[in-house]
Amino acid sequence: MKAFIAHNLFDGTAFHANRAILVENGAVRAVTATDMLPECERIEIGMLAPGFVDVQVNGGGGVMFNDAPDVATLRRIGAAHARLGTTAILPTLISSDAATRSHALTAVREAIAAAVPGIAGLHLEGPFLAPSRRGIHPARAISALTGEDITQLTAGFPAPMLITLAPETVPVTAIRALCAAGRIVFAGHSEASFVEANAGLDAGISGTTHLYNAMSQLAARAPGLVGATLLRGYAGIIADLLHVDAASIRIAYQMMGATRLFLVSDAMATTGSDAAGFEIDGNAITLVGGKLCDAQGTLAGAHLCMAQAVRNAVHHIGITPADALRMATHTPAEAIGLSRYGRIAPDCRADFVELGDDLAVLRVWQNGEIVV
User: Fold this and answer.
1) CA 20 to 30 Å from 153, out of 16, 184, 228, 289?
2) Residue of 54, 149, 266, 351 with catalytic role
3) Is residue 266 annotated as part of the catalytic site, yes or no?
4) pTM score > 0.85 for this model?
């Protein structure tokens, strides 16, 4: 057994002074006062928080999940993000054909069976999207949802599966079928009207992917998907200060709070590596000044990690440290049903990050074992 003695503990929802976290077999056994400890190894820590949970990770460590959807790629991406403080990810497959999607499903099944560190499920972002809002997604990959797709996506799966789709392009009966099979469905890359967005929410959609980006906006007589999201459900948001203006993030935060709005990285291959670019379906993406774009200037994901998103939220957007950390831990875990992640409480996974006063990552643990 180990005792992590935290002078300042963020447990996923609030800060607490002087707490000891008892860890055994990769899980939290108890959170107690520091003067009630058994004889065991003791690790002194200043500020301790749950490991970050990122539900939108396209790549990292120099590789993209789409390019090689296999266990080796998942190990590399997971390790790259773990070094940066993110201990649980949903590897994200950008719109692709059914064969690539099948490989991705198999890879995540195998990674879960092999307990690959950090792999907590799968995010399928597309291909059931609005062509006019596809962003960097390959045009040739965008498709309508078929009966064969529903069969593939509702088959048994050992972990959370998040599916991003445009609700105006998918029948509500299909959305209900996906949700009935336990899939988490988010709206995104969508031209949905306010009425269409709410019809999707009524059918079981529970959130929105990268709020504001690639979707119908809030206007006086057309509230769009943005307006529907501000009123209902969860939403991920990319806080790199490039995808969304800081004031727009602040508005969403004031409307939704830290219990519905959460941070995502939308990370690409360059995150956690010295790579200066990569390709998406033959389209060259270049990193310049912290921004990833193709030759036409289209944003292509983000060169971002969750720790930087937290710092941006606090230092540039005006979100409190407690809420920013909750938006990177408990809220995203809750949004996709990861009950043992994103909190420091009995029976939760012993995934921790030690932070400095400036919220820089100092040390990281997965399953109670040191990573960084």
Assistant:
1) 228
2) 266
3) yes
4) yes
